[in-house]
Amino acid sequence: MASLVASMGSEDSKKGKFESFVIVHNIAKRHNVGTLARSAAAFGVSEIILVGRRDFNAFGSHGSTSHIRFRHFHSLSLACAFLKERDCDICGVEITEGAMAVNDHPFRKSTAFLLGNEGTGLSAKEVEICDFFIYIPQYGDGTASLNVTVAASIVLHHYGVWAGFSERSREGNKFIVAEKPTNQLRKSHFSETPESVAEERKMRREAAANDIFSENREDFAPSNLLDTLFRS
Question: What does the mean pLDDT of the chain come to?
Fold first, then answer.
């Protein structure tokens, strides 16, 4: 009985304390982002962080992109700096040496999840910014890995359970969807606000002052044509 009370007290202390984020950097199939946004909306993700490309295919989102905040950075280094300012762990979802099973809930605080490319997994640069790694145990022998959006759904659900997120109210056989934010259009790309531009410029100045990019100046290069067109 005492252990049950202690467990309940621990769960109560976590509620409202933690946030989850999803980093979208090297996903090969852009239509996966729309489906990922739907899972993010279902499992209480605070923001989807786009790195490099701003465009994505909203197919599969079922309108959920209107209920998710998006933030854009030109490089992983800048995204990492933003998350660290918020005392946020970066968790790589990858089968690596030392990776922990997601069902063991090895989380400590607010966490941003970085999922690998569908074909090649996490790159060396992505691995470098991760604080720890988790994997999803499989029990059948018919596939070597899961689709990135399926993996994200499993991971985000486990994190929501650990963090004590409040379950959404239900009506009939479905969950109640919030009213769509005013003047919110269906998103298929991310347009930077003046505030986000100013914040990224500030982070770039601080990064340059701290010589964060001295070993890898390519972080400042636009990742594709869209970055060149939209870069302020």
Answer: 76
